[in-house]
Amino acid sequence: MNVIFFQITLLFYVCGTIAYLIYLVSFHRKVAWVGRMLLSVGFIAHCLTFFLRYIEAGHTPVINLYESLSFFAWLVVGLYLLLRFRYKVEVLGAFVSPLALLLVIWAATLPKEILSLPPILKSWWFPIHVTFAFLGYAAFTLAFCAGVVYLIQERLVKTKNIGTFLERLPSLEVLDKISYRALTIGFPLLTIGIITGAAWAEYAWGAYWSGDQKETWSLITWLLYAALLHQRLMVGWRGKKAAIMAIVGFGAVLFTFLGVNLLMEGHHTYAAWFR
User: Fold this and answer.
1) What average pLDDT does the structure give for the chain?
2) What is the mean pLDDT of residues 88-114?
3) Where are the alpha helices (DSSP H) in the chain?
């Protein structure tokens, strides 16, 4: 049953993304409203997907690549909808929804059978660590999207390409504010994810730090965002530099999330990821 709701999720994400891209071209607010509604319905179906899979599996369903990609996309969409409610920035949906859709499409190509929980994951630390880490990743994804839109807007302003498309984009100040807010949300979440991961490692392997590739890259990612926040708060970084750093940081997020698990060996690489 959870697979059926996943397919419904995919359908609504596709339709929502198309609507948002049409809005980016036409700038009809009704089209943006349609896109948001379609994305919201897809998100509800996604919630049901995870709820049913949790019931069927008997554990938090984030143990293989299919589940992790789906979980990541779900959090990205959910945080975007919350962010949009606060800032009323429709155009960001045209950048967030395609990214979430790509994650869901990738997940749709993978096997969807429910796997048994590996012994090392049978711990109450597992859902806490995974949830906080992925929430941090999702917030950084929004910072990345805001950074991309900022660079587009900044380029149009610099070249004095004042036109209809420029008018559709939020002001540079609003985009910078959104990126900063996403960073201030994502950083403490990732910090908690790393701390709970260290506590779990001590419980499972007897050491808070083992030099595992996932641990190393998580620390690198954390340090990148710590440096960005430091520069913003203490040095006064704003605008283009901050946007570029948010994009670079997201590259580290993707490698930490996917590259390490798919390309490297370590405690965080399980056979289930490749099934």
Assistant:
1) 86
2) 92
3) 2-26, 29-57, 65-87, 93-108, 125-158, 164-168, 172-205, 213-230, 239-254, 260-263
Q: Is the pLDDT assigned to residue 159 strictly greater than 80? A: no
CB-based contacts of 192: which residues, under 8 Å, 6+ apart?
132, 136
Cα separation, 33 vs 28, in Å, equals: 9
Are residues 246 and 140 in contact, defined by beta-carbon separation less than 8 angstroms? yes
Report CA 187 to chain centroid distance, whole Å.
Answer: 13
Contact 112, 54 (CB under 8 A): no
Tokens standing for 79?
């945080």
The number of angstroms, rounded, from the C-alpha of 248 to the middle of its chain's C-alpha atoms is 14
Give the span between the Cα atoms of 80 and 8, in whole angstroms. 20
pLDDT band at 272 (very low <50, low <70, confident <90, very high): very low
Transcribe 33-98 into DSSP letters: HHHHHHHHHHHHHHHHHHHHHHHHHSS-S-SSHHHHHHHHHHHHHHHHHHHHHHH---TTHHHHHH
3 state DSSP class of 78: helix
**pTM summary value:** 0.90
